[in-house]
Design goal:
9 strands, 37% helix, 2 domains, seven-stranded mixed beta sheet, globular, 287 residues, 2-enoyl-CoA Hydratase, Chain A, domain 1, alpha/beta
Protein backbone atom coordinates (compact mmCIF):
# COMPACT_ATOMS: atom_id res chain seq x y z
CA UNK A 1 0.00 0.00 0.00
CA UNK A 2 1.34 3.42 -0.94
CA UNK A 3 1.47 6.02 1.84
CA UNK A 4 1.67 8.89 -0.59
CA UNK A 5 0.03 9.56 -3.91
CA UNK A 6 1.53 11.93 -6.45
CA UNK A 7 -1.05 14.44 -7.61
CA UNK A 8 -0.50 16.28 -10.86
CA UNK A 9 -1.59 19.87 -11.16
CA UNK A 10 -2.24 21.56 -14.45
CA UNK A 11 -1.27 25.21 -14.50
CA UNK A 12 -3.44 27.36 -16.73
CA UNK A 13 -1.69 29.85 -19.00
CA UNK A 14 1.64 28.38 -17.99
CA UNK A 15 3.47 30.12 -20.81
CA UNK A 16 2.38 33.55 -19.57
CA UNK A 17 3.58 32.89 -16.01
CA UNK A 18 6.95 31.44 -16.92
CA UNK A 19 9.94 33.71 -16.39
CA UNK A 20 12.48 32.95 -19.07
CA UNK A 21 16.08 32.90 -17.85
CA UNK A 22 17.60 30.70 -20.54
CA UNK A 23 20.59 32.41 -22.11
CA UNK A 24 20.82 35.11 -19.42
CA UNK A 25 23.51 33.31 -17.43
CA UNK A 26 26.80 31.76 -18.52
CA UNK A 27 28.99 29.33 -16.58
CA UNK A 28 32.74 29.91 -16.68
CA UNK A 29 34.59 26.87 -18.04
CA UNK A 30 37.57 27.63 -15.82
CA UNK A 31 36.18 28.37 -12.35
CA UNK A 32 32.49 27.32 -12.69
CA UNK A 33 31.36 30.81 -11.72
CA UNK A 34 27.84 31.57 -12.99
CA UNK A 35 27.94 35.00 -14.62
CA UNK A 36 25.13 37.28 -15.75
CA UNK A 37 25.53 37.53 -19.51
CA UNK A 38 25.23 41.32 -19.58
CA UNK A 39 27.98 41.60 -16.93
CA UNK A 40 30.23 39.29 -18.95
CA UNK A 41 29.73 41.38 -22.08
CA UNK A 42 30.47 44.57 -20.14
CA UNK A 43 33.69 42.92 -18.95
CA UNK A 44 34.74 42.19 -22.58
CA UNK A 45 33.82 38.50 -22.22
CA UNK A 46 36.40 37.95 -19.48
CA UNK A 47 35.38 36.13 -16.29
CA UNK A 48 35.36 38.70 -13.44
CA UNK A 49 36.36 36.01 -10.92
CA UNK A 50 39.25 34.11 -12.53
CA UNK A 51 40.11 36.16 -15.63
CA UNK A 52 39.27 33.38 -18.07
CA UNK A 53 39.04 34.79 -21.61
CA UNK A 54 35.95 33.48 -23.37
CA UNK A 55 36.15 32.98 -27.13
CA UNK A 56 34.52 35.85 -29.00
CA UNK A 57 33.30 36.31 -32.56
CA UNK A 58 35.25 38.08 -35.28
CA UNK A 59 32.71 40.92 -35.34
CA UNK A 60 32.99 41.41 -31.58
CA UNK A 61 36.77 41.45 -31.86
CA UNK A 62 36.65 44.15 -34.54
CA UNK A 63 34.28 46.23 -32.41
CA UNK A 64 36.69 45.99 -29.47
CA UNK A 65 39.75 47.05 -31.47
CA UNK A 66 38.57 49.61 -34.00
CA UNK A 67 36.92 52.98 -33.56
CA UNK A 68 33.31 53.38 -34.78
CA UNK A 69 33.03 54.00 -38.50
CA UNK A 70 35.35 51.22 -39.67
CA UNK A 71 34.65 49.46 -42.97
CA UNK A 72 34.29 45.70 -43.52
CA UNK A 73 35.93 44.74 -46.84
CA UNK A 74 36.67 41.67 -48.99
CA UNK A 75 33.38 39.91 -48.20
CA UNK A 76 32.41 38.64 -51.65
CA UNK A 77 34.35 35.35 -51.67
CA UNK A 78 32.67 31.99 -50.94
CA UNK A 79 34.17 28.51 -50.64
CA UNK A 80 33.40 25.85 -53.22
CA UNK A 81 33.74 22.08 -52.93
CA UNK A 82 36.30 21.11 -55.62
CA UNK A 83 37.00 17.69 -54.07
CA UNK A 84 33.31 16.83 -53.44
CA UNK A 85 34.49 16.01 -49.91
CA UNK A 86 32.32 14.06 -47.51
CA UNK A 87 32.91 12.38 -44.15
CA UNK A 88 30.05 12.13 -41.65
CA UNK A 89 28.55 15.08 -43.50
CA UNK A 90 29.23 16.61 -46.86
CA UNK A 91 31.49 19.66 -47.00
CA UNK A 92 28.72 21.60 -48.74
CA UNK A 93 26.32 21.00 -45.86
CA UNK A 94 28.97 22.03 -43.33
CA UNK A 95 29.54 25.26 -45.24
CA UNK A 96 25.82 26.05 -45.41
CA UNK A 97 25.37 25.46 -41.67
CA UNK A 98 28.42 27.54 -40.74
CA UNK A 99 27.26 30.38 -42.99
CA UNK A 100 23.79 30.29 -41.43
CA UNK A 101 25.10 30.12 -37.85
CA UNK A 102 27.71 32.89 -38.17
CA UNK A 103 26.27 35.11 -40.89
CA UNK A 104 29.67 35.03 -42.62
CA UNK A 105 30.77 33.61 -45.97
CA UNK A 106 33.81 32.00 -44.36
CA UNK A 107 36.02 31.98 -41.26
CA UNK A 108 37.50 35.45 -41.75
CA UNK A 109 36.63 39.15 -41.71
CA UNK A 110 38.76 42.00 -43.03
CA UNK A 111 38.28 45.58 -41.88
CA UNK A 112 39.89 48.96 -42.46
CA UNK A 113 39.68 51.62 -39.78
CA UNK A 114 41.37 53.38 -36.91
CA UNK A 115 42.85 51.85 -33.79
CA UNK A 116 43.27 54.90 -31.59
CA UNK A 117 45.10 57.39 -33.82
CA UNK A 118 46.40 54.74 -36.22
CA UNK A 119 44.88 53.82 -39.59
CA UNK A 120 45.24 50.05 -39.87
CA UNK A 121 44.22 46.99 -41.85
CA UNK A 122 42.69 44.31 -39.61
CA UNK A 123 42.04 40.65 -40.44
CA UNK A 124 40.20 38.53 -37.85
CA UNK A 125 39.52 34.78 -37.94
CA UNK A 126 36.16 33.31 -36.86
CA UNK A 127 36.56 30.09 -34.85
CA UNK A 128 32.81 29.35 -34.93
CA UNK A 129 33.07 28.78 -38.70
CA UNK A 130 34.30 25.17 -39.04
CA UNK A 131 36.86 25.68 -36.28
CA UNK A 132 38.39 28.72 -37.96
CA UNK A 133 40.00 26.35 -40.45
CA UNK A 134 41.92 27.92 -43.32
CA UNK A 135 40.82 27.05 -46.83
CA UNK A 136 41.14 28.92 -50.12
CA UNK A 137 38.78 31.75 -49.14
CA UNK A 138 40.43 32.38 -45.76
CA UNK A 139 43.86 32.32 -47.38
CA UNK A 140 42.85 34.66 -50.20
CA UNK A 141 41.10 37.05 -47.82
CA UNK A 142 44.14 37.30 -45.56
CA UNK A 143 46.37 37.73 -48.62
CA UNK A 144 44.15 40.60 -49.73
CA UNK A 145 44.54 42.21 -46.30
CA UNK A 146 48.32 41.94 -46.69
CA UNK A 147 48.13 43.45 -50.18
CA UNK A 148 45.91 46.27 -48.90
CA UNK A 149 48.43 47.05 -46.15
CA UNK A 150 51.25 46.94 -48.70
CA UNK A 151 49.56 49.31 -51.14
CA UNK A 152 48.35 51.79 -48.50
CA UNK A 153 51.43 51.41 -46.27
CA UNK A 154 49.15 50.94 -43.27
CA UNK A 155 50.10 48.58 -40.42
CA UNK A 156 48.54 45.12 -40.56
CA UNK A 157 47.07 43.25 -37.58
CA UNK A 158 45.90 39.64 -37.92
CA UNK A 159 43.96 37.98 -35.09
CA UNK A 160 44.32 34.19 -35.31
CA UNK A 161 41.75 31.73 -33.96
CA UNK A 162 42.00 28.45 -35.82
CA UNK A 163 42.34 24.71 -35.72
CA UNK A 164 44.63 24.87 -38.77
CA UNK A 165 44.29 23.99 -42.44
CA UNK A 166 40.88 22.90 -43.77
CA UNK A 167 41.25 19.24 -44.68
CA UNK A 168 38.14 19.30 -46.89
CA UNK A 169 40.10 21.34 -49.45
CA UNK A 170 43.25 19.22 -49.44
CA UNK A 171 46.40 20.69 -50.96
CA UNK A 172 44.56 23.89 -51.90
CA UNK A 173 44.29 24.62 -48.18
CA UNK A 174 47.98 23.91 -47.54
CA UNK A 175 48.96 26.24 -50.39
CA UNK A 176 47.56 29.16 -48.40
CA UNK A 177 50.36 28.84 -45.83
CA UNK A 178 53.05 29.62 -48.39
CA UNK A 179 50.88 32.19 -50.16
CA UNK A 180 50.33 34.31 -47.05
CA UNK A 181 53.91 33.88 -45.82
CA UNK A 182 55.27 35.08 -49.16
CA UNK A 183 52.96 38.11 -49.11
CA UNK A 184 54.12 38.96 -45.59
CA UNK A 185 57.71 38.81 -46.85
CA UNK A 186 56.91 41.70 -49.21
CA UNK A 187 55.46 43.62 -46.28
CA UNK A 188 58.64 43.06 -44.29
CA UNK A 189 60.81 44.25 -47.19
CA UNK A 190 58.92 47.56 -47.14
CA UNK A 191 59.23 47.87 -43.34
CA UNK A 192 55.43 47.96 -42.93
CA UNK A 193 54.51 46.74 -39.43
CA UNK A 194 52.69 43.44 -38.96
CA UNK A 195 51.37 42.48 -35.53
CA UNK A 196 50.10 38.94 -34.93
CA UNK A 197 47.59 38.31 -32.14
CA UNK A 198 47.15 34.66 -31.14
CA UNK A 199 43.93 33.70 -29.34
CA UNK A 200 42.48 30.45 -28.05
CA UNK A 201 43.06 28.26 -29.98
CA UNK A 202 45.75 28.90 -32.60
CA UNK A 203 47.03 25.58 -33.89
CA UNK A 204 48.11 23.61 -36.93
CA UNK A 205 49.15 25.26 -40.17
CA UNK A 206 48.10 28.73 -38.99
CA UNK A 207 50.68 28.56 -36.19
CA UNK A 208 53.22 27.07 -38.59
CA UNK A 209 52.86 30.02 -40.96
CA UNK A 210 51.63 33.60 -40.56
CA UNK A 211 50.65 33.52 -36.88
CA UNK A 212 54.31 33.34 -35.84
CA UNK A 213 55.67 35.76 -38.45
CA UNK A 214 54.71 39.05 -36.82
CA UNK A 215 57.12 41.84 -36.04
CA UNK A 216 55.35 41.52 -32.70
CA UNK A 217 53.71 38.23 -31.66
CA UNK A 218 51.33 38.60 -28.72
CA UNK A 219 48.65 36.38 -27.21
CA UNK A 220 45.72 36.48 -24.85
CA UNK A 221 46.14 34.76 -21.46
CA UNK A 222 46.00 30.95 -21.37
CA UNK A 223 45.43 30.58 -25.11
CA UNK A 224 46.25 27.17 -26.58
CA UNK A 225 48.98 27.72 -29.18
CA UNK A 226 50.90 25.02 -31.02
CA UNK A 227 51.16 22.83 -34.09
CA UNK A 228 50.06 19.35 -33.04
CA UNK A 229 47.79 19.02 -30.00
CA UNK A 230 49.16 18.00 -26.59
CA UNK A 231 47.53 14.55 -26.70
CA UNK A 232 49.09 13.81 -30.09
CA UNK A 233 52.51 14.89 -28.83
CA UNK A 234 52.26 12.79 -25.66
CA UNK A 235 51.24 9.73 -27.67
CA UNK A 236 54.10 10.31 -30.12
CA UNK A 237 56.97 10.91 -27.70
CA UNK A 238 55.43 8.74 -24.93
CA UNK A 239 56.24 11.31 -22.28
CA UNK A 240 54.15 13.41 -19.94
CA UNK A 241 54.19 17.04 -20.99
CA UNK A 242 54.94 19.87 -18.51
CA UNK A 243 51.99 21.59 -16.87
CA UNK A 244 50.75 24.52 -18.95
CA UNK A 245 52.47 23.19 -22.08
CA UNK A 246 51.37 25.08 -25.25
CA UNK A 247 49.62 27.78 -23.25
CA UNK A 248 50.45 31.46 -23.77
CA UNK A 249 52.41 31.85 -20.55
CA UNK A 250 54.51 28.74 -21.26
CA UNK A 251 55.34 30.02 -24.76
CA UNK A 252 56.25 33.47 -23.42
CA UNK A 253 58.58 31.92 -20.86
CA UNK A 254 60.31 29.89 -23.59
CA UNK A 255 60.73 32.75 -26.04
CA UNK A 256 58.01 31.93 -28.59
CA UNK A 257 55.95 35.06 -27.80
CA UNK A 258 56.80 38.69 -27.18
CA UNK A 259 53.95 39.37 -24.74
CA UNK A 260 50.77 38.03 -23.15
CA UNK A 261 48.18 40.79 -22.94
CA UNK A 262 44.82 40.87 -21.16
CA UNK A 263 41.89 41.66 -23.46
CA UNK A 264 41.08 44.81 -21.47
CA UNK A 265 44.56 46.15 -22.15
CA UNK A 266 44.92 44.90 -25.74
CA UNK A 267 43.79 48.04 -27.56
CA UNK A 268 46.00 50.41 -25.57
CA UNK A 269 48.94 47.98 -25.85
CA UNK A 270 48.56 47.82 -29.63
CA UNK A 271 48.30 51.61 -29.86
CA UNK A 272 51.58 52.02 -27.96
CA UNK A 273 53.24 49.36 -30.10
CA UNK A 274 52.13 51.12 -33.28
CA UNK A 275 53.43 54.42 -31.92
CA UNK A 276 56.82 52.74 -31.51
CA UNK A 277 56.71 51.12 -34.96
CA UNK A 278 55.51 54.20 -36.82
CA UNK A 279 57.61 54.77 -39.90
CA UNK A 280 58.69 58.16 -41.30
CA UNK A 281 57.52 56.95 -44.73
CA UNK A 282 53.98 56.66 -43.37
CA UNK A 283 54.03 60.33 -42.39
CA UNK A 284 55.13 61.26 -45.92
CA UNK A 285 52.27 59.25 -47.46
CA UNK A 286 49.76 60.78 -45.05
CA UNK A 287 51.08 64.27 -45.84
Amino acid sequence: MSWFKRQEYKIENEGEKTVRTEGLWIKCDSCDQVIFKADLEANLHVCPKCGHHFRISARTRIDLLLEPGYEIVDTELKSTDPLKFSDLKSYKSRLKKAQKDTGLNDAILNAVGKLGDHEIVLSVMEYAFIGGSMGAVVGETIARAVDRAYESRKPLIIVAASGGARMMEGIVSLMQLAKISAALGRLDDEKIPFISILTDPTTGGVTASFAMLGDLNIAEPNALIGFAGPRVIEQTIRQKLPEGFQRSEFLLEHGFLDAVVNRKEMKSYLSRALDFMKQPSQDKVAG
